[in-house]
């Protein structure tokens, strides 16, 4: 079991009402606005792994890049330990010492001309953690390599990136991020380019860093089964909006938002072979449609054109947040008008969850 | 393997017999060629979905280009036969067929769906014109109007509105393009459709929808599918039978359900356990230690032995052969009585 007991409730990193619009030049030189992220709230606590799940183009990478201060926010705030941070400020440099990003492609994110030692030492030096003597620095690098299970570390320290397999390279990327001594890692699909048989050990490594070092991780993925394996909490994103969040098992077993349900129904699960009660998910006759354009998203809830339960109010306005005693919340008109009610009609959701099974 | 029991084949009639297929990537002399597929032998029945699963570099893509004769230098089929059985005709060996004769079989007997529909569709032709092109090539005398009408039927089968036939590929969404390329592959009602990771470029919701439509159309048209992917969890739900490839060889083959509930090869077991469950109780899982081997320098004996937890004496230097076991086949010394030249194993564990 990799998911841990309840983490201590001190938010390390927070996105509060974060919105990001991009200007792109459209046809005939007209500027169009891509509404990539709308009013997103995300909280990461110490020692907690939060998975951000959604389809490609749902804005999950943009949200991670906003949290990494790669882009300024259009609206809203990014807070580290309660302090608002903006890109380009002095506080931003300190911020980068606390928040490190791990990219999808381990082939592109290491300097291919330099040895592992140089790649890691550079991070140590830039963030002022490098020891004075060469021998001590070597020891620092060896310790970092051991932390990511690259053992014997002596064997790896003088390799060039191309001499390593994809999994080993991604471990070096993680070791380099750890060299900065961050409190938060932002992992953007960190395992999706690795071979299937080595993905799990990478997830186990991330879980260990959480358990042993109290690191926080935002784990961005399209694979909801992998998210369930690793994460304490799950956030589901659709077309730039966060539609549901909660403790992992609650969201998987009792999804409240119709989109979460669609995502779960669509994900592969060989258990369906053995358990006919789960039914074949291949007998779908109705087309569930496709995600909308973020240039001209549908009004109201952006999921309504694909939603089997869409009603009039869904087309008019984006619903407020409904909170549930289970710790889940969702933005969906099925669960009332929202507005932060704790006395949520949770039976609606459970009823639908039963229908799903 | 011809006489082996197959209790799960949906149809009995054999469509494709692959015998001892070996694909090499030739290198300038005196370097020996790199063997991407070695000694592959299997049958495919009419209307059956055969899944081929494996990690990068296991030879699954080389198998596909060999089956469809789409390989380019330096890839060469150096040994083996691929017999295609046609309705009302003698079987033909695709490996030795002339380009001219092969051209007649393409699309009408064998079609392919590529991973990226953007590469498979012509960017400067309207969708309908691409259908008409293929249809009129194989049905001489079909006029343009009839071809467009048939194209409308075909795209309707995959849930695309016929008015989209006038669109260019870039005007369609990724999911729609992939569905269109599946409909295009089915245009001349082939008996065999080879699919190379057809849904890796689309997300899970669209994947589910596309594959539902493939199953639906298979029920209607009766084509067989060779479906190649690294996503074993998807394949288990989709395929009738699955072949697991490792370092250029098939290490296990059997009914999807048997492979899931009782995998015989340690690699199959490891691969199955590399996919965390969606609803079943959570538990700590481990992948397979090490990484897949390089084909330029594969380990001796069983190629999986450096990563195998159950390795024993014969694994290091003797290559296990694919032998019948239960309802399927497995290439593993654990299941052979005398290593390499073992006879069929007693069926005490038959499924």
From TrEMBL, chain A:
An example Gene Ontology molecular-function term: ATP binding
The keyword Nucleotide-binding is assigned to this record: yes
UniProt key word Ribonucleoprotein: no
Residue ranges constituting the ABC transporter domain according to the UniProt record: 19-264
Keywords attached to this entry: ATP-binding, Nucleotide-binding, Transport
InterPro entries on file: AAA+_ATPase, ABC_transp_ATP-bind, ABC_transporter-like_ATP-bd, ABC_transporter-like_CS, Oligopep_ABC_C
A UniProt-annotated Pfam family: oligo_HPY
Domain of life: Bacteria
Protein name according to UniProt: ABC transporter ATP-binding protein
PROSITE patterns assigned to the protein according to its UniProt record, in alphabetical order: ABC_TRANSPORTER_1, ABC_TRANSPORTER_2
Species of origin: Streptomyces niphimycinicus
CDD domains the UniProt entry points to: ABC_NikE_OppD_transporters (cd03257)
